[in-house]
Amino acid sequence: MKQKLLFVSALFLVFASQFSQAQNSSRYYLVRATTGASGSSENVTANNKQYVVQQSIGQASVIGTFYDNNYTLRQGFIQPNVMAKIVDVAIPLSLEAIVYPNPFIESVSISFSEQIIGKVEVVVFDLVGRQVFSESYKANQMVNVQFSALPVTSYILKVTANNKQFIKTLLKK
């Protein structure tokens, strides 16, 4: 057991030293570096080389990839651009609504500040963009939505009404 622990510790130290070199922009090792807490990408040119800088949801540490011979070593993770799957670019993000309570236990109420005409579409996505709930409601100034079947985690709520949309992060506790 001690030999295994010693081996893993030595391996960690070797890779940690390589990561510190991989994150230096003057080194040829640097493949990708990410800091942030949203979800975007940007192509950057530095020292006549192209890099992709990405931000990921909830990721506060640097992300890097190191290649050596036949090995690829990655630090951290990158979330897909979830909002691109959720937001309909043909519909404005101008629907004004209040969602409460948030965090919630079983249900949320959605209160609109404008007169609602037609139906209200409520769709909920998990954090990787998979649709986990969808329901249509009659036009009303307040809609109560039951989420008792959803497990405890974070979600992205999309409400569409009056040919406008509203996006909000929800937390089920």
What features would you highlight for this structure?
single chain, 173 residues, alpha+beta, Immunoglobulin-like, three-stranded antiparallel β-sheet, 2 helices, 15% helix
Gist?
The protein has 173 residues and is an alpha+beta fold.
Can you tell me about this structure?
The chain has 173 residues and is an alpha+beta fold. It has two domains: 2-79, no CATH class; 83-171, Immunoglobulin-like. It is 15% helix and 38% strand. The chain contains two helices and eleven strands. The chain has helices at 2-22, 82-86; strands at residues 41-46, 49-54, 64-68, 71-75, 97-100, 107-112, 120-125, 131-137, 142-146, 154-161, 164-171. The strands form four sheets. Strands 8-7-10-11 form a four-stranded antiparallel sheet, with no helix packed on it. A hairpin with a 2-residue loop joins strand 10 and strand 11. The radius of gyration is 22 Å and the shape is flat. Mean pLDDT is 77; it is low at 19-38.
